[in-house]
Design goal:
Elements: E1 4-7, H1 13-21, E2 25-28, H2 37-40, E3 46-49, H3 56-61, E4 67-70, H4 80-86, E5 89-92, H5 98-114, H6 116-124, H7 130-133, E6 143-147, H8 151-162, E7 166-170, E8 181-183, H9 186-189, E9 195-198, H10 212-217, E10 223-226, H11 235-245, E11 248-251, E12 275-277, H12 286-306, E13 323-330, H13 335-345, E14 350-357, E15 363-370, H14 376-383, E16 388-395
Bound molecules: 3-phosphoglyceric acid (3PG).
């Protein structure tokens, strides 16, 4: 039976073809929404989405679902706890759209400084206002604070340095070779910044991070850019800061963003002239979409050919395993069964296990992660097996 892949968002044709070429049954339904997915995904093996929400109802209704791929970076549109309960892999495509998001962040920064959108609106309304729009500050020599210096933040840093800005970052542990200064405390960083740009994922730890306190550290008249996730900002605190400190804001992500690709929108932000909003287009360049699609195809191909999931996000980071047992053994039937029966008899849980074979196929090595320690007597029992070459056991 063919593996069924449902692609529930816009996806470039050439990459759909690549999946068909490896004999997959591809269902391309780019207009599906959250509430259509439980029915649409119930018989498929793999679901690919961009921002369409994969909720618990979809996951629970599915009979064969094995892998959900987020064709993008953020995975907050997928109910990962529900996927964990059913052993469904969730993977993403990190880094593939970083340049596109960084380009938009820089574009928004220049837009805020020169008020480009207002220039255009006035022109379209038949109004010429060189006097007013000549009052921009310029970005050279200004200080930019990058909150979250991962794949996207790093691309923003490179571009901002090229503009002659001083670039400071929060959480730069993952980058090297970029001339930006690290700050661990927001109350030290924010008061220095003329421009702040957010590049963090939406997690329980980052929800509402930009609250009243953070806005209190920001300079009056500073610029704030959010091309990450709306949840990072407490919208009420932001509106207050816009009104009381003249903070000017550009957002590619907003609270209650519509799931549909086109339609009506109502937001309190529409009333505020110091707020520019783009339509969650950060990742939506052709270059980025092709890179994301190529990565999605690669994840699917690797999974089908080897069972390995690249960018597997719901693998346990902390397991209950506290001990590692490594057994080198002749690659013969029954050897592992014998080792495992020794472990089972003492009621010890194996958390993770991997058996790999040396070139030539004579010897294999089995690594097990165990919840509790095995005893010297058990090790002796294993070593007594003539098909076992070595046993090592360490606390991890
Ligand atoms: C991402 O997480 O990759 C971006 O938010 C892009 O979302 P989109 O693919 O729905 O445009």
């Amino acid at each position: 039976m063919k593996v069924k892949v449902l692609i529930a968002d816009k996806f470039p044709e050439q990459y759909i073809q690549q999946l068909k070429d490896i004999d997959l049954d591809v269902i391309y339904s780019p207009k599906l929404g959250e509430n259509d997915l439980p029915e649409a995904a119930k018989d498929v093996d793999i679901v690919v989405v961009r921002s369409t929400i994969v909720n618990a109802a979809t996951i629970n209704a599915s009979k064969n679902l094995n892998l959900i791929i987020r064709a993008g970076a953020g995975v907050n549109n997928i109910d990962i706890p529900a996927a964990n309960q059913k052993g469904i892999y969730v993977a993403n495509c990190p880094g593939m759209n970083s340049v596109a998001v960084a380009e938009l962040a820089i574009g928004l920064m220049i837009s805020l400084d020169r008020r480009i959108p207002d220039n255009v609106i006035d022109f379209r309304n038949g109004k010429w206002n060189k006097g007013e729009y000549s009052k921009a500050e310029g970005l050279m020599g200004k200080t930019l604070g990058i909150i979250g210096v991962g794949n996207i933040g790093k691309e923003v840093a490179k571009r901002a340095l090229a503009l002659g800005m001083n670039v400071y970052g929060k959480d730069i542990s993952r980058i090297e070779g970029i001339a930006i200064k690290d700050f661990s405390e927001m109350n030290q960083l924010l008061p220095l910044c003329d421009v702040v740009t957010l590049h963090l994922p939406a997690t329980p730890q980052t929800k509402g991070l930009f609250n009243k306190e953070m806005f209190s550290y920001m300079k009056p008249n500073a610029l704030l850019i959010n091309t990450a996730r709306a949840d990072l900002i407490d919208q009420d605190a932001m509106i207050e800061a816009i009104k009381t400190k003249n903070i000017r804001v550009a957002l590619d992500v907003i609270k209650n963003e519509p799931e549909e690709k086109a339609g009506e929108i109502k937001s309190p932000l529409q009333e505020l002239k110091n707020v520019y909003v783009t339509h969650h287009i950060g990742a939506s360049t052709e270059q980025a979409q092709n890179a994301v699609a190529a990565e999605t195809v690669k994840i699917i191909k690797d999974f089908i050919s080897s069972g390995v999931i690249a960018h597997w996000v719901n693998r346990a980071k902390i397991s209950d395993a506290h001990y590692q047992l490594v057994v080198k053994h002749y690659d013969k039937p029954g050897v592992l069964a014998n080792i495992m029966s020794i472990i089972r008899d003492k009621n010890i849980n194996i958390e993770e296990i991997e058996n790999v074979i040396f070139d030539g196929g004579v010897v294999a090595c089995c690594t097990m992660k165990l919840k509790t320690s095995i005893t010297t007597e058990m090790i002796k029992q294993m070593q007594d097996n003539p098909n076992v070459l070595s046993v090592s056991h360490v606390a991890i």
